[in-house]
Amino acid sequence: MKNILTYAALLIFAAGMLLCMTGLEFGNPAYTDMDDYMVENGQVLTGGNNIVTDIVFDFRGFDTLGEATVLFTAVLGIGLIFRRLREDEEYGYE
Amino acid sequence: MDMSRIVRTTANVLLPFILIYGFYIVMHGHLTPGGGFQGGAVIATGIVLLFAAYSYTDLKEKVTLGALKNSETLGLLLFIFTALLALTAGFAFFGNWLVNGGAIFGDMVAFGPNPGDLNTGGVIPIMNLAVGIEVLGAMGVIILSMLSGIQEDA
């Protein structure tokens, strides 16, 4: 019974993947309005010649704020792992 | 326990150039490929070079964990503070309130290919600098934490 259920789930999964693979047309139609807007107006609106930096720090500033916060949190975790133990503190593992 | 004199001398000679190159990448982030993240990582490699050439015990008085932590926090605070300052100038959060204003980083930029002017970009160079300081501090804290765990050379 369990085997049959597993095979049925696998079959449904494979059918879904096949449907996605064959049923969708990628790049048609091409939605490039946002790209064109940034390439055409990026220099004038943000004043930077490097369009990538214009997007990262101006058009997508919130994204960069999240990125910086992720870095901060990663360093926080590393500091927690590698912190110096107090005098009376023991390692928790056996 | 230090590395040999050759390694230490090479590190001494190379360190200023690495720091200047990293600072160049940070400050030209809005003109050339690069930016705060990449430039901060380059500066952090200078710190790694120092710790590879000299021992951890020699340098732990000069390059302290507290200073790097402070630089990381300062970078993130400067980033958020620059974004918040846009509110006082009448823009939205993260608005570019310095661009084309004629003040600092406020020169007009031409559309199309041009040689580039460092004094453009509005808040983008300031944010690049903030992120550069933050990444430099973050990488340094990671390296120093791991080195202090083993208490040996890099």
Describe the structure.
- The complex is a heterodimer of chains A (94) and B (154).
- Chain A is mainly alpha-helical and 94 residues long.
- Chain A has one domain (2-81).
- Helix content of chain A is 70%, strand content 0%.
- In chain A, helix 2 (33-46) crosses helix 3 and helix 3 (51-59) packs across helix 4.
- The mean pLDDT of chain A is 83.
- The mean pLDDT of chain B is 86.
- Chain B is mainly alpha-helical.
- Chain B has one domain (5-150).
- Chain B is built from five helices and no strands.
Summarize the topology.
The complex is a heterodimer of chains A (94) and B (154).
Chain A: H1 2-23, H2 33-46, H3 51-59, H4 61-81
Helix pairs in contact in A: 2-3, 3-4
Chain B: H1 5-27, H2 36-53, H3 56-59, H4 65-88, H5 124-150
Q: How many strands of chain A?
A: 0
Separation of termini of chain B?
10 Å
Oligomer: heterodimer
Strand portion of chain A, in percent? under 5%
Class derived from helix and strand content of chain B: mainly alpha
The beta-strand count of chain B equals 0
Question: Quick one: overall form of chain A?
Answer: flat
What's the average pLDDT of chain A? 83
Features:
heterodimer, A: 94 residues, B: 154 residues, mainly alpha, 62% helix, 0% strand
Brief summary of the model shown:
The complex is a heterodimer of chains A (94) and B (154). Chain A has 94 residues and is an all-alpha fold.
